[in-house]
């Protein structure tokens, strides 16, 4: 491991905490695609709140990394929306202040979930050559539950000896068997529930939903493989 490689875990801002008893908002209060009616239980985090929180994460990232060259490594598929919105907010801050954060963007694909269960075999696709990771890296991941996926990804990325690695995760789940591997920037800390929307899927469905929602039991049955 390079001497100047820093992986921080458990920063002081652990994200907005959503308690176990949070029931979410009634679906009647928001718009969502008709093709998902009956498939959802509630709106857990409305799209606007995600965007507002992402704007703040962008500011924190700018404050810490501003004026360095960074390589953003977007973790597909679930991280694409968070990554795109985070990059947009960083671009806006770079345009509107003396502070600037030059970025390049790259992509990596991970797959470990079937239905709502994590599988043991984690596939990394498109990661064969990460030699572009010479500068700093901010690696947005959409969701971190046990932290096993993040740990595997970090090990893989470290092998290419980047100068620094910072991880941004939109959601961190409170799970009993957490590896303790946490992102440096966290959007929300949520209960151990399976959520969909904002690019998070259940067997590839629900990526086209803008709010983060809890899937209903009938939704799980309908899209089960
Ligand atoms: N939703 C979608 N994908 C996931 C989740 C989740 O709650 N947890 C881990 N991958
Ligand atoms: Mg998935």
From TrEMBL:
<dbReference type="GO" id="GO:0000166">
    <property type="term" value="F:nucleotide binding"/>
</dbReference>
<dbReference type="GO" id="GO:0005829">
    <property type="term" value="C:cytosol"/>
</dbReference>
<dbReference type="GO" id="GO:0000287">
    <property type="term" value="F:magnesium ion binding"/>
</dbReference>
<protein>
    <recommendedName>
        <fullName>Phosphoribosyltransferase domain-containing protein 1</fullName>
    </recommendedName>
</protein>
<dbReference type="GO" id="GO:0032263">
    <property type="term" value="P:GMP salvage"/>
</dbReference>
<dbReference type="GO" id="GO:0046100">
    <property type="term" value="P:hypoxanthine metabolic process"/>
</dbReference>
<keyword id="KW-0460">Magnesium</keyword>
<dbReference type="InterPro" id="IPR000836">
    <property type="entry name" value="PRTase_dom"/>
</dbReference>
<comment type="similarity">
    <text>Belongs to the purine/pyrimidine phosphoribosyltransferase family.</text>
</comment>
<dbReference type="InterPro" id="IPR029057">
    <property type="entry name" value="PRTase-like"/>
</dbReference>
<dbReference type="GO" id="GO:0032264">
    <property type="term" value="P:IMP salvage"/>
</dbReference>
<keyword id="KW-0479">Metal-binding</keyword>
<dbReference type="InterPro" id="IPR050408">
    <property type="entry name" value="HGPRT"/>
</dbReference>
<keyword id="KW-0547">Nucleotide-binding</keyword>
<dbReference type="GO" id="GO:0004422">
    <property type="term" value="F:hypoxanthine phosphoribosyltransferase activity"/>
</dbReference>
<dbReference type="GO" id="GO:0006178">
    <property type="term" value="P:guanine salvage"/>
</dbReference>
